[in-house]
Amino acid sequence: MKILLSIQMLALLVIAQVANAATVSVQVIDKNGKPLPDAVVVLLPTNKAAMPKVALSMQPVVAQEKMQFVPAVSVVPLGAKVIFMNNDSWNHHIRGYAANTSQVEAGKSNGFSMVLEGKSAGKKAVTKEIVMDKPGVLGATLLGCFIHGSMSGHIYVTESPWAAKTNAEGFAIFEDAPEGVAHLRIWQMDQPVDLPLKQLDVTAGINKQVTQLTQVTARRVRAAPATSGYAY
Ligand SMILES: [Cu+2]
User: Fold this and answer.
1) Is 13 inside a domain boundary?
2) How far is the CA of 119 from the centre of ligand 1 (A)?
3) I need a surface site. Which of 77, 127, 190, 201 has the fewest CB within 10 A?
């Protein structure tokens, strides 16, 4: 009985070791050391054949709800069909263009714009789709609304399947990353310039990385929007 138990425990240990063969844990912090949520972490492994167990959605939904884009930041693969869904009872006139272009350039660029009619009582929300497949779409697209200047969101398009948003504690964790050399790309909406790629040597076990964005201050968490209706 004792021997049997030991063998079982050994088997469990082996399984546990395989399960976290290589974990890459990245924390993104601001200039004061505070965690930055909604930063995008992209892992670029040299081993391009390796795929994460859970793939990014090819049909993510970006809702318009109470004058906000929900989620405020979406990480999507190249070629994803992003579904915009207006859950508000008023119209939104959404625009999107590369986040690093100026207002003047944005007018000329091949961004997109579309009107989504407000949701009528008892009816399904209006949806429209945008396929993020144009060359040059990689990186962040800034979302806004021509009608409501306060609305702001981002869609980050990635070629690498290893991409995630940081959580409230500033962490993005890849549990099944391939071992070997990889590069790390970090994007954050308030970071004015792209950071140089960081090289990692991913080994079995937990690989911890902390990236400090010295030009960024964590924003105060936005209060939940009022539930009362807006007059439009
Ligand atoms: Cu709007």
Assistant:
1) no
2) 13
3) 201
